[in-house]
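Lay summary. Proteins are chains of building blocks that fold into shapes, and those shapes determine what they do. In this project we predict the shape from the chain. Here is one chain we studied, written as its sequence of building blocks.
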Amino acid sequence: MTKILFERLGGTKGITEIVNDAVEAHMNNPAICARFLPYKEQPEKFALIKQHSIDFFSAGSGGPVTYSGRDMLTTHRGMNINPTEYMHVVDDILMVLDKHNVDEESKKDVLAVLWSLKDMIIAK
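And here is the predicted shape, written in a compact code that computers can read:
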């Protein structure tokens, strides 16, 4: 029997590490860091955003987690995220998955999830 994506990514511990490394990659990516660096000045909000990301990713990958944050449309409304910025985020996440030695099937599954969210995140 095939494991669910949540398990293949290492469960809560693995997803937490992936999210933390992805956020760090975004902060070091010159194309998108301006969207993430200001959160360093708001540690409580930054921690909450990271936890929501962990919960969202965990729940969306089949884990026994309840996501209690806002929906993606509401969360990203007014941010005016463009397609290029979104692709930088996706590239950073794929790079982090490689760093964590995530298998190709699981990377494709993560990519499918990311792609399914793009129209809710990119500004119209």
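What the prediction tells us: Residues 11-28 form the longest helix (18 residues).
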